[in-house]
Amino acid sequence: MGMTMTQKILAAHAGLQSVRSGELIEAKLDLVLGNDVTTPPAIKVFEDMGADAVFDKDKVCLVPDHFTPNKDIKSAELTKCMRCFARQQEISHYYELGQKEMGIEHVILPDNGIVFPGDLIIGADSHTCTYGALGAFSTGVGSTDLACAMASGSTWFKVPEAIKVVLKGKPSEYVTGKDIILHLIGSIGVDGALYKSLEFTGDGVHHLSMDQRLTICNMAIECGGKNGIFPIDEVTLEYMEKTNKERFIEGRYTSFYPDEDAEYSETIEIDLAKVPLTVALPHLPSNTKPASEVDLPIDQVVIGSCTNGRYEDIKTAAEIFRGRHVKEGIRCIVIPGSQRVYRRALDEGLLAIFDDAGCVISTPTCGPCLGGHMGILAAGERCVSTTNRNFVGRMGHVESEVILAGVPVAAASAITGKVATPFDLK
Amino acid sequence: MKVKGNVFKYKDNVDTDVIIPARHLTSADPEQLKLHCMEDIDPSFVNKVQTGDIMVAGKNFGCGSSREHAPIAIKASGISLVIASDFARIFYRNAINVGLPIMECPEAAAAIKAGDEVEADFDTGIITDITSGETFTAKPFPEFIKKIIDCGGLVAYTKEKTGGK
Fold first, then answer.
1. Residue B165 scores a pLDDT above 60
2. How much is the ipTM here?
3. Of A22, A119, B72, B152, which alpha carbon lies 20 to 30 A from A207's?
């Protein structure tokens, strides 16, 4: 019996010829990630277990992005704890606010060229599954797992079975990776891929840019998936050359492909041409509807996050806002996902478009996505957001509502003051 | 080992944002976290819960964020066991790692009612609803989890592996 792409990556890192779904393995890690919320508890565990040094200072990545720039004294203490640890351990991939490599963890790791095909990565953040877009295996864990991985450079996995998701054809105008993944979550449910891999394939893959693929893999967790993963093609190669030319030229990565006879628990086909502009209504990401069928007034729009804060997202939003204005009484918060995205948007005049349109522009942060800061909702308020979760109380008051959407729908909603699509704009 | 307590019952897809909202993640202290456990879906939980009580829920318990603060908050509040139809995978891992006992049992999750008195035996996997008189058998822990528990949790397990350096 053949192996899936994910199974091949796991086998290679466990020093095994082959693995089967359900098998328990211990695997070596290429990169271990933590943020300002999950790392401080991990540091405590690290110290409690008597560890004094990380397994490899070049393979640990610590990013203060959730409550930064620090929103209060407690969050400042958390970041300080992580910063001190990073300095003491001489962590290479610790990023400080304002550095050009800085930003939201899942935006910057691929963009900084430290994630490549075939890599095995864990991170104490559930959206660590993002890097499957590059043909890597990556998944989220908790703080204790992070601590043990920082000390040992390895962790255990249960080898997942996989769902094969065949993407066919070309998406319609304005339809993005966000619509595709919301559509998939809507059809299989928030536990539809519980403990499993989502392995994307099909001719439709070639129509998706790297930024779109990153968005799709980012939300694999929202249907319970252990990871999402894309095949390696010309888009992947071009991205690697752009983000880390040295590693690319030296060939320090491995492209894994699924075997012809790999076993899948099910196969789902998605005709991309038929995927509508999609939103997820409160309070589950699976509560999806075509955006054109929703008519609800809103109070706020958020464009950003590890799901949709990449350059292409910001550029798409700016194109829709060009020459238009946010509806009176609506707040629209635009959060470029990294310092690089911010700078490029500045250089290309995109930030001026947002400013002219009446949007507020924030420094990179996870901020409102998890109800941290920078756009918290009051009771009864409703937000269209390009973020990834719309659970009860996620962005603020327990009686507030989050509607998840892609960037074009979010921008159009800010302009009209209600859930809308770009086709509704004059 | 056996536990016994009264049941707090919840539905499917209890997410980590309602178990412990992100606004309280500026602390990882169990004593602080327990003060806000479940507050967005069950504000009375923290006042009613007694040491030993049991949480019972439907599918996909603990979905969402990877925050280990969620099982820590539940454990610190005095809950001795969470029974669910199934658990989201990161929560499952985190619960084991921090020593919060969990059991997967769809039949028990469906039948047990709020307020019932329930007893569970971790060694046999038998769950008894004392109030209704019904018994259920949970899926036993996989072998590898037993090993981690035998070592006293993931920290001790890793300590052993790395020679306590």
1. no
2. 0.93
3. A119
For residues B57 and B10, the answer to whether their CB atoms sit within 8 Å is yes
- Contact B40/A398, CB-based, under 8 Å? yes
Residue in this structure with the two tokens 């070309």, named with its chain if needed? A170
Instruction: Dump pLDDT digits (tens) for A211-223.
Output: 999 999 999 999 9
Q: Which of B17, B159, B162 is opposite residue A394, by nearest beta carbon? A: B17
d(CA B64, CA B21): 11
CA distance B17 to B57: 16
Q: Write the CB contacts of B69 (distance below 8 Å, at least 6 apart in sequence).
A: A41, B16, B20, B24, B25, B28, B33
CB contact under 8 A, B26 and A74: yes
Virtual CA dihedral for B97, B98, B99, B105, nearest 10 degrees?
A: -70
User: Which segments of chain A have a pLDDT < 70?
Assistant: none
Q: What would the pLDDT profile of B27-45 be if each residue is shown by its tens digit?
A: 999 999 999 999 999 999 9
Taking the C-alpha atoms of residue A163 and residue A192, their distance in angstroms, rounded to an integer, is: 10
Parse chain B into domains and list their residue ranges.
Answer: 2-161
- Which DSSP symbol is given to A272? G
Burial of A170 (0-12, 13-18, 19+ CB in 10 A): middle
| Helix (H) / strand (E) containing A402 | strand A401-404
Interface test with B, best of A154, A190, A218, A219 (most B CBs within 10 A): A190
Residue of B13, B18, B89 lying closest to A195 (CB–CB): B89
Contact between A53 and B89 using a beta-carbon 8 Å cutoff: no
B25–A contact, CB cutoff 8 A: yes
Mutation to test the B interface, candidates A370, A376, A377, A388, most B Cβ within 10 Å? A370
* Contact in structure between A86 and A35 (CB atoms under 8 Å): no
Of the candidate CATH numbers 3.40.50.2000, 3.20.19.10, 1.10.3720.10, 3.10.310.10, the domain formed by B2-161 belongs to 3.20.19.10
Residue of A191, A223, A226 to mutate, testing the B interface (most B Cβ within 10 Å of its Cβ): A191
